[in-house]
Amino acid sequence: MSTIPSLFISHGGPNIVTDDTPARDFLKSLSGLIPRPKAIVIVSAHFETGGVSVVTDPKPGMIYDFGGFAPELYQMVYPAPGSPELAGRVVELLAKAGLAPTHTVQRGFDHGTWTPLLLAYPQADIPVVQVSVDPDRDARWHYAVGCALAPLAKEGVLMIGSGHITHNLRAVIPVMRGGASVDQAMVDKVEAFTGWLAEHLAVGDIEALLDWKTRAPYPVENHPSDEHLMPLFFAVGAAGEAATGTRVHASRQFGLFAFDAYLFSRSVADDV
């Protein structure tokens, strides 16, 4: 079976499944960019635990972890099965790496999981295993989680980090609601930050990326809290050593909310 690239996506709000946007169109085309996986392991910024936890639920339900959106979004169901067997393999690999994983026996799909998968794999016929982020851990720790699970790519498992390349809702929401104008200075900060990430991901400059909070321009302005960027580092690690990232999508809402997505290729040596 061919090695599956790992992926980082900016999942947007739940209305990404209903609004006519370039980000929605990209997610709908996603399955054509990669081989069909036999299973999916996804790290969503909305699944937060102390340490790393793995969902073993064989039949996850739904979590509507949002408010104030169109009523139809609260009726949507993504009935993909879980996989206790794969979850056990994930736990095994994480434990082997010394990451002390825990089990989450029952947990539904939050919108960081179900909205992109509903668009990319609407048949919901691929098993999905969820893995958490720890908002108190840094990029290096989440990168280690990805590295621990890198062997799964050779087993036909697609590993997805689902977060956001920028996530300053305090800047975005007032503009979205029509109560504020777009701040061009903030737009420039978004461009500088996303451009820096694209440059360093393209060449696989892991050390610079893991030190993003001191090396990247305007880190706090783009991420007042870190949790929505941590899935990126998981996806980088999941591609194995010397991985490089190709930006396969880049769009913006109001110039401030960036929807960049990346595919991560593995080194030739890592596939031998």
What does this structure look like?
The protein has 272 residues and is α/β, with parallel strands linked by helices. The protein has a single domain, classed as LigB-like (Protocatechuate 4,5-dioxygenase, Chain B, 3-Layer(aba) Sandwich), CATH 3.40.830.10. The protein has helices at 22-29, 84-96, 111-120, 139-149, 169-176, 184-203, 206-210, 212-215, 219-222, 230-238, 268-271; strands at residues 6-10, 39-48, 53-55, 102-104, 128-133, 157-163, 244-249, 252-253, 257-258, 261-265. The strands form 3 sheets. It has a 6-stranded mixed sheet with strand order 5-2-6-1-10-7, sandwiched between helices. The chain has a two-stranded parallel ribbon with strand order 3-4. A hairpin with a 3-residue loop joins strand 8 (252-253) and strand 9 (257-258). It is globular.
Radius of gyration: 17 Å
Give the full name of the CATH homologous superfamily.
LigB-like
Shape: globular
User: Percentage of helical residues?
Assistant: 25-40%
The CATH architecture designation is 3-Layer(aba) Sandwich
Percent of residues in β-strands: 15-25%
- Mean pLDDT equals 95
The string of secondary-structure elements, in order, is: EHEEHEHEHEHHHHHHEEEEH
Q: Unreliable runs, pLDDT <50, ≥5 residues? A: 268-272
Report, as a whole number of angstroms, the end-to-end distance. 13 Å
Enumerate how many helices there are, as a single number. Answer: 11
Largest sheet, spatial ordering of strands: 5-2-6-1-10-7
Say what the CATH topology is: Protocatechuate 4,5-dioxygenase, Chain B
What assembly state would you assign to the polypeptide chains in this entry? Answer: single chain
